[in-house]
């Protein structure tokens, strides 16, 4: 049994509903040279819709070829749609969550669901999360690194964090609109450098904003190997000592304690880098990911784990399945 925690999808039902009733949801699909492009609250998505997001047969074939038994399905991050008004955002989130729930049910044993929530309305987000985990039997939620311009330590988001901690569900943290305002489109730097940088900034807010300390039961998993966090953890810690006037205002314990609570996926494209991640985080806080179906994903995530030097068979088993099974088993609702 192997689990892929980082796999994006948009169920075909969601596409069909948006095409038919997009005006009501605040989302449309515009034609883009024969391919569709999401337009959320009037803003086009970064790229056209990838066909692999909706093609279930191609997804299962890719999973079988890669030796992946179960994917944790999460939205394409562009569909989080935090710019929508609260009512539209909640309706879109519930549409997506119910459609993913159907995928899980109609393809037994291959998928588990990560919901999406309207974080622009934190109380609604908390209710949507509780519904998804308790009623739809989803195992967590995917969120973006910012909420329509707000950072993740914004106090208004506390109802969502409290619900996620109470449920003890997985929170998959994924970059969106990376390094907004910087000219990083050339050379594909927006993805290669911008995404991990954006993630690192978000983790910094979760740590130094005190979110991870206030809610120790949170299970936050950071994609793309945690961005630059593992490599710069010493610098992140040094700031607490060097400038407590700026860094210690929301913390009662050193930032290392918050960093140790995080989980990380393995989408690093280098077995040596995964080995360094394991050395930093501990093997019990590393889980396998692929970033399916995108070109910057790992098409052979199981093979990557097999090549990581210095791991025992038991440690590889934890990364491939044991850690995810433990996290799912510790949800506060029956699985």
Describe the structure concisely.
The protein is of the alpha/beta class.
Distance between the termini: 17 Å
Q: For the report, how would you describe the main beta sheet?
A: 8 strands, parallel
| CATH fold node name | TIM Barrel
Q: Taking strands numbered 1, 2, ... along the chain, how are they ordered across the largest sheet?
A: 1-5-6-7-8-9-10-11
Describe the protein.
The protein is of the alpha/beta class and 335 residues long. It has a single domain, classed as Metal-dependent hydrolases (TIM Barrel, Alpha-Beta Barrel), CATH 3.20.20.140. It is 45% helix and 15% strand. It has an eight-stranded parallel beta sheet. Strand 7, helix 5 and strand 8 (170-174) form a beta-alpha-beta unit. Helix 1 packs antiparallel against helix 3, helix 3 packs parallel to helix 4 and helix 4 packs parallel to helix 5. The model has no long low-confidence stretch (mean pLDDT 95).
What key phrases describe this protein's structure?
335 residues, three-stranded antiparallel sheet, globular, 45% helix, TIM Barrel, eight-stranded parallel sheet, alpha/beta
